[in-house]
Structure formats: structure tokens, C-alpha cells
Amino acid sequence: GFLESTVINIASESQSKLILITVDSRKPFCHTGSHSCFSLQTSIKANLATLADHIKLQINNDSYSGMMQRNPPLALAKVMEEFWEVMASGQDNQVSECSDLFVHLVMYLNGIGIKMEDIFNELNARRWTPKILTEQIETAEKKSNEIIIGITTAKYTDKTDRFAEEQLGIKVIRHSGRNLLVEGQIIDRDKFAKYFGNNENIKLSLFTSKPKDMAWLLASKRVTHLITFEIVVKNYPTVYTVIHEAIDPTISLALICRKGASIEPEKWTRQNKPLIATEHVCHVARFFEQNNINPHTYHLDRVTGSSEGFLINTDKYLLADAVVESGRTLEENNLEIWKVIIPQGQVHIALYGRCH
Fold it and tell me: What's the CA gap between 290 and 199, in Å, rounded?
């Protein structure tokens, strides 16, 4: 009965040993009522193309997926948000978070008119044209006698520069005003050689960078090393190896709130999630996990600077994370530490190299 509206075509090969049945994958086909005869319970499990088509059916509906597909920039923004949720979530939540990431990417592709077949064709072309990948690798891996170190561009430059001089034998020379030149002078050959080798013809260059760009610069081989705080690199995928590190005794990473605020995680629910502004998403998520705070009862908004401002200028956020040294900024803005994530004496400055 129901097969009449499902089967599109039936054909057999020349010796009548095989039958090819073409069906409408949006409708049940198997006698069990399933969309396939291969123990697949729903149409969206059949393949990625079917999944994309299934989602696209909602594009004109008054639904979440319809809205996302009609507004692909919004779907792309959600892809970026979901990436950080994948980064921050523990192993138990990876399937859920990766599913969210993937489905929003599919919504974005549907919204801009790219079919899964287009993606498959591109991947297949790469499979049979390995030269494309080889050229990309060769571009990134051209041998050079230059050591390029990514180093902090603004905040806490005194600390990273002191580490470079005292630990690595590199004096960092910064210029005043609008002069952006940063130079590295080797002042202790023994210290320098311990971490970079004895080649006296090596060229040393310093590359100033904001923390949010450092992991990418190292992973993409734009720089050979980083000098920065561990709270920077450990907020990103592990694309680095620690070469040398030292404790900074004066700073901590903390969750902060307004003075006198009532922070009661046991009262947070899925229907009443507080917003938390965080620059260090992975550290905050890990802290909550270690303290048995359900990840489904709060929402982390990743921000790229001055997260304290999200508490000062709006009531929308309950908490924010911050690197705390003297605490003067907190005091002057009527803020206080709620919980310390990494205490003073446990934060490292380090020289990082590429993973090999």
C-alpha cells in the first residue's frame, strides 16, 4: 500500500540477478516502516546527503532550523559558538557537542546553496589529486634558518620579556610610541643554545601577537615558538609542546562577580541558565566539571578581551573570568573573586614549540 508513493523506479540488470529500487528517501520504504532495510531507524541516518535534505525540508518553516537556513550568517555564527563548546566539553559530552557543531554547519551549507554532493566531489578530487595537499604542506614546511617567536603584544609584556631574558638569554627590545618594531638580542649564548641549538648563523625574529592568535600561528607554522602564559595556549587544541617553563608568582585565574552577589550553582537549571563571560573557556568548563556543576545548567559566552566589562556594564551576566594580579581593577569596579580557578604560584610562563 504505502510503497506505491515511495518507490520511484524499479530496474534489473541484464541477467536479472540484481534489482535496483529507487525510492523517495523522505518516506518509509521497508515493510517494518523504516526508511531503509539496513536497520536504520530514521531517514537522517541513511547518509550525509539525506541528512542535509531532511534538514532542508524545514527551510521555509517557522522553526529553529528554518530560521537558521534562511539566515546563513547566523548559522555560521552558531558554528563558531559550537566549536568552543566542543573545545570546552569533556569526553562524555563530545558526541552531543560535535552533533551540534555538525548540524549547524549543514544548516549553513543549505542556506548558501551548497549541496553535500558538492562537498563529496571536492573531497574526491583531493583524494585523486594529492598534489594539492602536498603543495600546501611544502609551503608551510620550507626549511629556514630563522627562529620566529610569537610573543605578547600588550598586556603583561614585562613578564614575558623578563622570562625571555632570564630563562632563554634573549633581551626583548620594544620601542615607544607608534613604532611596532620588536627586536630580540641574544645576550646569553649558553642559555639560548640550550633551547634553540648552537647554530651561530641562526636568525632570531620576534612576532608580536594577541593571545587569541598564538595557537593558530604555531599550528599553521607561521611561527616556530611562542613565549606566553599557559592559560593562553591551554585554551586551544594541543598543537604545542612545552620546551621550558617557569612559575609566575603574582597572577591567578579566577571567576569574578559583583560584590555581594549570590552565586548558587545548585539552583541553576536548564530553564534558568546563567550567562558567564569567559576568555578562558576550557579552563572554566574544566573547573565546573571538577566541581560537579552540570554543564547543561549554565552557558559560557566566549569573549576575546576585558571580560570584566560584561559585569560592569550590564546585568545580563552573572560571572566572568579574569586574570587577577593586584586586584585593583576589581576593587575600583565593585567586583570580587567568587572562585579561584588557578591560584597564584601555579600559573606558568613558558617557551612552546610545535608538535612533531
Answer: 46
